[in-house]
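for the recovery benchmark. tokens below, seq after
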């Protein structure tokens, strides 16, 4: 079910539990600001999620409240994960769902990285 992006941060969401190590993930990268792991239900040959370590519901929340260091660290992590996984040359797609119309399901900001094949239309017909 899609989440309300204006809701307060819920520290029982699944990605908060992954960040605390309470449930496992297939980790792709970690640094001071970010964690990246493979999506449990991949929608492309490569489908990696990158999340900030801070408690942000969505891109909307992050872009308003995060500090400059957090934003820079997160953006750099997204780029590094793409490079480290060989996605730059063939190409890849970034996606961040925000709220109901986008179908955001997990109320912790995550950027999807898709790659490994031609990705087709940007938005389904
Ligand atoms: P959203 O629709 O919120 O943008 O995307 C949520 C994504 O999280 C989905 O692609 C879904 O497959 C993924 N996901 C949900 N629960 C888990 C989990 O426990 N582990 C991992 N690795 N991915 C998850």
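predicted aa per position
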């Amino acid at each position: 079910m899609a989440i309300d992006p204006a809701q307060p941060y819920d520290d029982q969401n699944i990605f908060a539990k992954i960040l605390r190590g309470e449930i496992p993930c297939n980790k792709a990268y970690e640094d001071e600001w970010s964690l990246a792991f493979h999506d449990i239900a991949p929608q492309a040959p490569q489908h990696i999620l990158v999340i900030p370590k801070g408690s942000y519901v969505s891109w909307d929340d992050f872009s308003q409240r995060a500090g400059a260091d957090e934003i820079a660290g997160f953006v750099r992590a997204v780029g590094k994960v793409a490079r480290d996984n060989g996605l730059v040359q063939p190409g890849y797609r970034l996606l961040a769902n925000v709220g109901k119309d986008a179908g955001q399901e997990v109320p912790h900001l995550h950027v999807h990285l898709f790659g490994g094949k031609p990705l087709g239309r940007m938005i389904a017909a």
